[in-house]
Amino acid sequence: MFIKIYLTMKNKIITDYLEYFVNLEKPGYAVLLKGKWGSGKTHFIQNLLENWNEPEDDKAKIQINPIYISLNGISNTKTVTDKLKAKLSPILYSKAVKVGKKVLEGILKTTLKIDLDINNDGESDSNISGTIDLLSLLDSESKNITGKKILIFDDLERCKIPIDEIFGYINNFVEHTNCKIILVAEEDIIHEKYEKSEGICYKDFKEKLIGRTFEIESDTTTAIKSFTKNSNGFFKQNEELIEEIFIASKTHNLRILKHSLLDYKRLIDETEKEYKNHPNFKIFSKNLLCYFLITSLEYKSGNTNIKHYQSISSFFNDYSTKSNSEFDKKYDSLIKKYSIKNSSFSLEIEELLNYLKTGSVSKYLKVIENNVFFRKSEEKDWEKLWLWYFIDDIEFNRLKKSVWNDFINNKINSTFEILHVSGIYLSLLKNDLSNKQPYLIIKNAKKQLRRTVKNENITILESKGRGYFNSSYGKQYQSKDSKEFNEILDFTISLIKNNQNNNSKTFLSDIFHHLSDENVNFIPELLSKTYPDSKTNYDRTPIFKYINAKKVNTKIKNLNNDNIDSFTNFLHNRYHPEETYTNLTLKKYHEDDIPFLKELLSTVSITKFKNRPIKTFQYLKLENELKRIIHKLDSFDFEGQDAQYY
Asked: Does pLDDT of 197 surpass 70?
């Protein structure tokens, strides 16, 4: 029998055994197929299921083909029974269409030995499937019911029915019918769920029901071929790169890989034709594919540190540097092997994450317009000077003078161009090709950077790529390892951090100092935005640290009554995180909100309203909530909590 799935040798052994198992007359046990989420368990069994479907060859018999049931989210056995009946009912309906209702009734009378005249009116009941116990089709040993009677129960680990109860239910089919039962599950989750449970021993129940257990093994090479067989030539040309990235990621989840390839395809499909027809599109899309897969595989596997990979944040703290080291070890060798450029050349990691989180391609479409692979503008003088060691002497002297004049006369308006120019002149000085001394280069660089960082409003959110501080415009910074260049770089970073702090204060001030009926219900959504340092969200920072409580109270007074209630609920949810997520608790940044909360309580408690009973009621509710929150925060032991982040 041909199996339409790519198999490892181990999976071929499983297939052979299952072929043997489903042909047993009455096995007396179930088979368990286990494997990690995304390992291909469901795909594996559904391909076999297709091959086990048999054509109906006798009109006088009822053919029962394999039945597949997902137990995901099911909380009682009645629902399982209903699902089984829903699978069996179409079999009778289809049979009635093929042979006629009267003929089917005759078959059922003979097979199940029942009288279908339920109403005793001399007429057969019109709803056949509603007048018989459909599960009796599985119990019957009549030769009029054919098929192997295979029942497949998938997603056992996601079933909400206690394991002893669902196993007892399934065991009934094993002991009292000729059904062949196959269970599919991520068994480790079941073990974890019941290893600490009192009175329920998973191992004991398993031994009573399951006779053989097999683990499905992912076959990366052939799985990738199956994912790409219907795609365009690009995926096929890069199958080796795809496989090496997947293996390096240690994800072991083919489902995530498949979804990642589909997400990438959508991004490329949105690309305008003028770029697709560009001679550099092939190398651009290869670079993008590499970082897209790395980002998607890591992010969808729960590794949030991926946001630090090739990120500017590595210049701010040791933690980010360690995160980069983690990914460098994984991917550097294959990046070099396939001549992949820095992610800043295609799309930065943070923008890839944004696409994965939101599905929005707008940023991608904007970035690609100015991408180094597709640029239409002529090279600037500093870009030509960057290749000083190749150019003609006359041109070199012209460029050296021209770029310096631009540098000292405020004609360079890009922060990253200033970094390039600084690096170039430090390199020229080192090679005795310029008399511009380090102090002069540093002095002018700092002067220009104060202007450009402010004018460009650069924050870490907008310049996250490690490539921007390693390279930009497709070029590495010259002298980037020198003491002088790093002084300029550190100065740039300090300016950006100041921008970051100012921007965050402005952002929070805009929310709370301009509170209104139009925006109060959007506070949680606004605070879920990424903080400028790219390490966390606003709601995981001391949001009220620089907020004026009296201004906020003035805004609260002007809210509708229901929106005052909404603001009260917002405060409650913020300081009771354990009610939303069981693994969360108060953190250090909550403590930093206490001064604001106490000041707000003082102003709220003295606020009075005339002839406004409902508003008075809502303010009293707000006052009491503030008291409870402050008491909770004052009583909480913040010692040892992270200073800012979860």
From this structure: no
